Structure formats: structure tokens, C-alpha cells
Amino acid sequence: MALTIRSFNLGALQTNAYLVQDKDTDRGFIIDPGMNPGSLVRAIEGLTIEAILLTHAHFDHMAGVDEVRRAAGCPVYLHPLEQEWMTSPKLNGSLMWPQISQPVTAAPAEYDLGEGQVLELIGHQFKVYHTPGHSPGSVSFHCGKDLFGGDVLFRMGVGRTDLPGGRERDLIDSVHRLYRLDDEVTVYPGHGPKTTIGYEKANNPYIR
After folding, report:
1. Which of 16, 36, 179, 194 has the most Cβ atoms closer than 10 angstroms to its Cβ?
2. Which residues lie below 8 Å from residue 161, measured CB to CB, with a gap of 6+?
3. pLDDT at position 95, please?
């Protein structure tokens, strides 16, 4: 069974939200419903959404979570190190950019994510990697030839580490872990265009 992956560019920071579906059914799940998620909410009408997964809890990745959760009637998954960020505009960063966002809060996530966990969603298995550095609870989701990496690894870039809880050494270690995946694995990042593990290993100027 193949996956159908749709990307939605949301909010002032152009965050990538993903709607992941099984190609042959109306089942799906969502990764990182960011700011102003109206286009995403419209896209899930008539679908069975099994979960909302958060790669991390910075406001631009979770600002739309309550709106989408109400529309989909599904639970939210997040690493426990960032559970408090859902209810704290200070921790989730929304207080830092008042010119683009009101203070953001959301109800806590229903379920925790952890290293090595395997999520059974839409008839597929998604392995959870704890990939801190950009934030302490950042995670990535891997299924076959697809990787959803949040703000860890970008095309020709990596996540910033100057926000609260960021740590450059952890980010470097996290990217090197992802580099162990097959070169053909497609990386769907939190911002910008998709890339592949092989391309980043050969060309990314920040981490070789």
C-alpha cells in the first residue's frame, strides 16, 4: 500500500503541515497543523482522521491543533518534554513574535511520543525517532521511503538552535542519526521543499 502525502503551507512562517493518507482508503492523519489551518480543515472533510502528530510544539507547528482536532475528532501525539508548551505561550514561542501571532495555547496532547515507538496508523507502521536539538522534544516519523522530520533537517539547511531548549550538539547528533537511513528516503521538512537523505549527505553545508 502506498501513501498519499499532501503538503499545506500555513501561516506567516510558512510551516509545512502534512495530510498523510492511505492511497486506497479515506483514512489519514495529520502532521503539524500550524497557523491558519482553514485549507487543511477543508481538505479533511469526509475523511477519517486517525491522529494528529506533532514533530514539536513551537507555535507555528501547533497553533491550529485545536481547530483541526475539533474538526477531525481525533487525538494528538507529542513528546512529553514539550507537553507543557501546549498551554504556555512563553514556552511555545508565540510571545516572541507578537507581530505575526497572538499568544497561542492549546489543550494538552492525549498521547506521548517516545524514541523507538511504532505507531500503527492508516494500515502502516511509523517509527518514532527522538531527534532533539531544534527543541528538546523534537521527533521524526519514518515509514518506508518517507521521513517527516519537522525542523531538524531541511533542504540544504538544518533547524535553528538559538531558541529556548535548543542545543547545537544535539541537533548534529540527530541529523547524523537520520543520515543512517537509506539515501533514497524522502525528507518532508517543517519548512521549505522536500529533499532526500542522500542529497543532504552529499550537499548540506551544515552537517556532512
Report:
1. 16
2. 133, 134, 167, 168, 170, 171
3. 94
Instruction: Name the DSSP class of 163.
Output: S
CB within 8 A of 120, min separation 6: which ones? none
Q: Which domains does the chain have, with CATH numbers?
A: 3-203 (3.60.15.10)
Nearest CA to 187 among 158, 145, 124, 136?
145
Contacts of 98 (CB under 8 A, 6+ apart): none
Mean pLDDT, residues 125-149 taken together = 98
Query: Cα separation of 120 and 23, whole Å?
Result: 16
Q: Give 31: exposed, middle or buried? Use CB within 10 Å, 0-12, 13-18, 19+.
A: buried
Residue among 165, 157, 143 at smallest CA distance from 189:
157
pLDDT in tens, 52-68: 999 999 999 999 999 99
Task: Give the predicted TM-score (pTM) of the model.
Answer: 0.97
DSSP alpha helix (H) spans, the chain: 38-43, 59-62, 65-72, 89-92, 168-178, 197-203
5 contacts 31 by C-beta, under 8 angstroms: no
CB-based contacts of 4, cutoff 8 Å, min separation 6: 20, 21, 22, 23
